[in-house]
Write a structure and sequence with these properties.
heterodimer; A: 181 residues; mainly alpha; 6 helices; B: 200 residues; Rna Polymerase Sigma Factor, Chain: A; Arc Repressor Mutant, subunit A; 2 domains; globular; disordered C terminus
Amino acid sequence: MAIYDHQPYENWLFSAEILTDEQSKELHEHLLTCEHCRCLAAGWQDVELELKAAPAVAPAPGFASRWQVRLNAGRARRAQRQAVYFLVFSIGGAVLLLVALGILVWPVFQSPYPFLLAVASRITFAYTVSNTITSVLETLSKATLEVIPPMLWLALIVVLGSLSVVWVFALRKLAYVRRIL
Amino acid sequence: MQENESDWLSRAQAGDPDAFTQVVEMYQTPVYNLCYRMLNNAGDAEDAAQETFLRAFQSIRRYDRSRSFPTWLLSIAAHYCIDQIRKRRMAIVSMEDLPYPELADGSPGPEATVSRKEERKQIQGILNSLQPVDRAAVVMYYWYEMSYEEIGQALNLSLSAVKSRLHRARRAMVEEWITHEQNSPSSVRNSHGNLRSPAI
């Protein structure tokens, strides 16, 4: 019998599908005459029995405890790795910043006199400007004091003080939540 | 039990490692057995099972509660073991050269014990002759009685691919079994007393 003649019977033997009555009968008749398929069927019967009889193998006792130890070790390793990454990143960043600063400052080190001159002229300019502003403010305040009489100053202070008191009370009133019984 | 499992899973998904330890306690044997049947070595199986639970713990937040948890867990274990077998194959030898493991056997009588051990070694040897994915499918089908759909989900295979892989695996296992029987002088009858012909 050619190999392909066994094909449907082998399919039925190994498919694990439920055969129809007709297919069962056909297979039965074929097995009576075919040594090859009979051998396969017997072998499969044994293998299936062994597979179904084989027990589930359990791990050695304390598996969950070993898992916890492994989990903690993994976490510690990860934390250590993160710390190393952080350190490397920080040192790398600092080195980069230093390099950038060096590139910026390098021309100053090469010829410091123009830089020092520029700094001195900036300081002088700032001093002159602040002196000018101070003298202008002084002149203005003197002129104002001469124009406004002392009674008006007093009235202005009283009004501003009263407004401050009103503002504080209003704030307290709004800030406290009214309790409803 | 189901309620406990659901509660533990919820807590584990919220990041509670103690709850996940309960899950480890619950599923250690199925996961270890799958790893053992796949890798055929107690030490490797322990490593693989531990790694499976670590990976499961790390990705538990991504676990979809509408899916079966054992299927999800066994899927992680199977994929890890398949990778290990492929690495191992690339690194060293054919699995045929590896020794069969010693399995604990509770059956009485020294003769019966020896006979059962032989058969279990033989069944493990037969499993080792299969392709890694086929082996995973066989273990899931025969040890965990998973449906074709569940096996397909776990191994990322279509339904027809699962059927065809199981068919091919059964055929390969029988051929390996017959070869072993022919080479073994003491195996005119099998342990169940069957003659070398099927019950037709």
